[in-house]
Amino acid sequence: MKLSQQALICAQQLIKADEKVLDAIAAEGFNNIIGLINKLKQTAGQIKSLIDSAITKAERLLDELADEVENLKRGVKPYPRNLLALKEEIARTLSTKYGDKVQVHILADLLEIRDMRWKNAVEAYLHTQKFYLIVEPEHFLDALKVYDRLKFEKGFYDLGLVDTGKLAQLKPAAMENSLAQEVETSNRYARMFVDFVMGNVIKCNDLEELRNYPRSITDSCMLYQNFVARQLHPDRWKNPYIGRRSIEEQIENKTAQIAQIEKEVTSFKNLSNALSNIYSMESINLNEAENITEVLEQSKNIPALEEKLDAIVDELSKLDLTWLEQLDKKIEKLEKEIENLKKQENDCLIELIDLKNKNKYITENSIPSAKQNIELYQNRINSQFTDEWVQKVGEPRFQKELSSRASANEIYNNFYSQLARTQSQMNKKWEELVSARAEYNREYRMSYDINLPDNAPYEKELNELKDIKLPEYLEKIKDAKEKAFQQFREDFLAKLKANIDMVKEQIEELNSALKESSFGNDRYRFVVSPRPEYRRFYDMITDELLMDGYNLASHVFFEKHKDAIEELFKQITDIDLQTDADTRIELEKNIKRFTDYRTYLTFDLIVTDNQDREQRLSKTLRKKSGGETQTPFYIAMLASFAQLYRTRYNNESGNTIRLIMFDEAFSKMDSDRIQESIKLLRKFGLQAILAAPSEKIGDIAPLVDRTLCVIRSENRSFVKAFDAKKLKEALHELQEADTQPIAR
Asked: Which helix (H) or strand (E) holds 535?
């Protein structure tokens, strides 16, 4: 029987009771009622605690929804935090690298929906794809590296980055009446992605049409693809993100959600207040028997309270309390772990006592005996060998042998048999020493005793040579070396500066050759500048102080470039005869690199269009087509030959050879670029022989003075000239034979 039912029965009995009945139930009856009321209060308190916790969570959710509504009113959509963090990190990194602000877009921000009838279908079909990030093709790899570097560190999972470069190469197109046609955007890459994803999803007005297409959808979001029809979940379009209207819809949805939650919170608060009244209800005791009439009067409220209690119990039954069971299981598991740890602790204490006993025995018995043996053997070693031999030879060899053998006794037994051979070798070495002493006495006319047990007189002679005479020679050698090294460094810097100055003059001459020439609407000029990573060396080599009479030894110049001087010459002169082969190879590479003046310079070709916009070849070379990359090659080649042949001079010195020969000429260039190249070649006054494939003859022949074709027929070859005015007939003839045209 329920607690509330028991309370109701007791209350009914009390309501109907008279004085005789009250006297009959006396103490036992009141004890039952008191216990029942206490249980009722306890249950009411527990339920109130659960409801208050639910109210707290709901109020926290209301605060979050209110913040989201405020952000939506400011135009900020509630995108996932990790998506916004990745977007900001990519934009910051790219802007830092390229110096300008680089835009990173979320796909949903770039899209608008034309017909609101299909709004839910577009939102549902794109689903999480509408959160993909869009960057320019040239920034994709850099953005991908940022994503890869931070994906595990910051939890950037399931976020998409569109490969706009590959997408542009694919050039997707939307089918007629496809869902993609309901999406509008001014961003070309967003357009291509939408066409790629939804360009083959056909819109259908009713279900019967769905099977007419491989992939189709209705405005109610019934999707048909891969021979399967399925209804997309409403959660996919519940909070729209696409288009300007999406913010207003989200504000309306979240406002309605806030109102619903506030209504539920109010209901829960009323329920909590009712439970508070039950919980704070006072219990009766035996001393309050005289107030029984008042208690009986109050008991009339029990039916209403029981109704509330049933509602509360019903609410409680709907709550998920499985976490309490999980908590009990965790407590049980931890108690078992504690029991195991106590057992391990006991085992460790037993082992510790055993080890202490062993340690005591070793300390009192084994160690003193071992120390006596060590002292005995140490005295024997000291009496037979010098300290120097023991430290440098004996002890290292003994440790080496001990590491590969079982014990010292084994080493002793193995080496005992070698003692006789060692003694024989010692005698032989003594004879060689005596012979060497005698040879030294004869060679240098000395009268030292060759049979002395030590080498004292010879060592004295050696020390005199080493400490007195040798330092004198070394000082002279050092002085000569310093002077030679100083001269080498000054000559080395002078040669590098001369080479750099010469290259700058050559660049100026090339630019002079290009200054009055253009390639279509483009003008070209070469630039040379210091390489950033070697800038400190470049500044030292080209410092004006060297032109004002200063040199490396000058205090002003040395203080200004001290670090650069020391590092540069360390790279090319730090040679040690004992250096290993790999280090010497690396040193040779350094010498080759740092003695080449090109190491300190960087070269580039600047293209200026008719609107004075400039582009550097180094930044656009990899992004252009084959023909676009050949154009700067021919510009540089023709300008270099014009400068070399001095074609700009009309005097006698300009009357020089002007011949250039090109094989596979203009192989990757289109017709307009070929014509511009030949016009520029003529403007420079150069004479060219162009060997080109037959498919280029139509572009080249009308612009050259003479055209010859090398024709192969079976095993024969011959040369034939033809008139450019009869180009069609010549081309027909060339198609019938294997040819190699040559134009001059």
From this structure: helix 535-541
